[in-house]
Each structure stands twice: as C-alpha cells, then as structure tokens.
Automatic annotation (TrEMBL):
Protein name: Leucyl/phenylalanyl-tRNA--protein transferase
EC number: 2.3.2.6
HAMAP family per the UniProt record, alphabetical: Leu_Phe_trans
Keyword field contains Zinc-finger: no
PANTHER family in the record: LEUCYL/PHENYLALANYL-TRNA--PROTEIN TRANSFERASE (PTHR30098), LEUCYL_PHENYLALANYL-TRNA--PROTEIN TRANSFERASE (PTHR30098:SF2)
Length: 214
C-alpha cells in the first residue's frame, strides 16, 4: 500500500490486494479525482481518517450490455405507474449528496460523504463530470443518486443513493440504467458487493476485465 504525496500519481490499480486498498493520503482535488476514476480507483474512508483509495477484485457492476441490467420487480413497476414521481437530472446535485450522507448503512458507524467530499464532488459537477438523478414527489426531493460520468469510456461510476419514499432510489437507478443503455454504455460501476446491489441485479466481474474497459 502506497502513501500518496502532492504528485498526481497512483500505483497501478491491479497491484491492490483483493480487498482493494491501494493507497492512502493525497487530496480530493478535481485533478486527482478524475485521474482516479479514469484509472478504476475510487476514494472511500471514514471522516477523520486519511483518504483511502480502492481498487477491489472482483468489481461490482450493472452490466448495461446485458438484456436485463437491472432486476425490475412487479412492485417497482407499480411504483413507476402509481406513485406520481417526477424524475429530473442535475437540478440539485449537492442536495442529493447531503441526503446520501445521512443514509444509515449496515456495518458503518458514520459516512465518508463529509464536507470536503461534498465540496470536491460539487466542483466536479460544476465542470460536468459528476451527475445526479433526482426523484420528486409534489416538488419534494424524495430520492436520488449521484456519480461520476466517464462518457469517453462508456462507464458511469455510481457513488451513492438515498430514498425517503417507497422505491424512489430504485426509480432513479432504473432511469439511469435506461438512459445509459440507450447511449451504449458498458457499465454502471457499483464498486463493492453488497446484498442490496445484488438484489437489484448487479454482478461481480474480475478486476482485470473492468480495468480493460478503461
């Protein structure tokens, strides 16, 4: 594991052990974040700890080249029809991030989405690299997600999602899946395995396969 300094350089992502911890340190500058995502690396750490950079093997993705990248249940279809949700894109990026920061996650005491994280990713959004999908109910934001868009690589790096109403985050994800599939994207990067992502249809692929698309 390498300790980063002010130089904009990472170890090769395939050199990380299977659990994925590649390097620590550095900063959350726009330049470093873009280099990281374009290299298949992402930051994830607890507030107050050094910045940790990850490249796990295997990698969790939604395969947008498959016939059914996301599992759409009967109840989700009913929510689409009956809940009166309105889907928007990039209208309140920072607000989506702040909601994601409040999500309670199993086996995690806090959140990695601290003020520095929000500031850096909001800057990425201003520059067109970070995007959000928002779900509204009667003009109230009730769900959404955000991530880093790599259109030249045909990969969207999903970061986090939240929901305050039934299926709202799933509605946001389904919208993203359909939009990216129509643009012939390869993957939505979901980073690390968890049961919720698996239930939605995400699969694990070898790290080298994922990196080959970058």
């Amino acid at each position: 594991m390498q300790t980063l300094d002010h130089n904009l350089i990472f170890p090769h992502p395939s050199s990380a052990p299977d659990h994925g911890l590649l390097a620590i340190g550095g900063d959350l500058s726009v330049e470093r974040l873009l280099l990281a995502y374009q290299s298949g690396i992402f930051p994830w750490y607890s507030d107050g700890d050094p910045i940790c950079w990850w490249s796990p093997d295997p990698r969790m993705v939604f395969d947008l080249q498959s016939d059914e990248p996301m599992r759409v249940t009967k109840s989700l279809k009913q929510s689409q029809r009956n809940k009166g949700y309105i889907i928007k894109e990039n209208t309140c990026f920072t607000e989506v991030m702040r909601h994601c920061a409040l999500v309670k996650r199993q086996d995690e005491a806090g959140t990695w989405i601290n003020d520095d994280f929000i500031s850096s990713y909001s800057r990425l959004h201003e520059l067109g690299h970070a995007k959000s999908i928002e779900v509204f109910k009667e003009d109230v934001l009730v769900g959404g997600l955000y991530g880093i868009d790599l259109p030249e690589k045909k990969i969207f790096c999903g970061e986090s999602m939240f929901t305050l109403a039934t299926d709202a985050s799933k509605i946001a994800l389904l919208h993203l899946v359909k939009s990216l599939k129509s643009k012939d994207y390869h993957f939505i990067d979901a980073q690390l395995y968890n049961d919720h992502l698996h239930s939605l249809g995400a699969i694990e692929i070898d790290r080298e396969v994922f990196l080959s698309y970058l």
